[in-house]
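Why does residue order matter? Because the sequence determines the fold. Keep that principle in mind as you read this record.
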Amino acid sequence: MGLSYLLFSYSTIVAFNYNVSTLSAAEVPFLTAAEKISGILVVFVYIAGFTSTLSAMIAGSNSQSRLIFNAAREGLLPVGLAKLDPKRHTPWVSFLVFFGIGLAIVYIFGWTVPPVTFFGEIATLGTILIAVTYLVSNIALPVYYRRHHPDQFSLLKHLILPILGVLAIGFPLWALVQPGQPVPFNYFPYISLAIIVVGLVYAFILSRRDPSLGDRVGSIIADRE
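Structure:
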């Protein structure tokens, strides 16, 4: 995948004669490059784009609906979201909820923002939250092993590597949240912070209602059955 990405990126840059301005102005640079070379290549590019986009949507829908299902099963969300189809045993309710939320986001913002622009903006917002999740996970790992499994604690695996992970994640995360971002990216750090605060308050309320909830949350990530 890495080699393919480098090859396609380099080929696109060559097709634009190393002109950064022209390359940046193209809405889909790889498609524009294919159009300049051969008509048959455009057909293959459209097929590749369609299949890859569809595959990513299927994979994303499955994983996200599964997370909603697991969260409902463990008590983090209303239990009704954990219903399964009686024949296929698929989490159809959680999928419909995810599908509805996704459509709502697309139709609310899609009327005013071009699709490619909206994709980049919403992906940036999501990346901030994902990066924070991985950052906290790296920080929590040595604490967890020292507290619960001190006999298995490894200086390399449970301290040095998590520290390197924090450094690797912290640099791009700072680039996404640092002051001086253009609109609307300058709002994303505050939106992310608001989501995190709401999540913490929600977690506090749930943990007060069910003190054993924290011991079951791991199955949401591991998807144990």
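Residues 16 and 23 are 6 Å apart (CA to CA).
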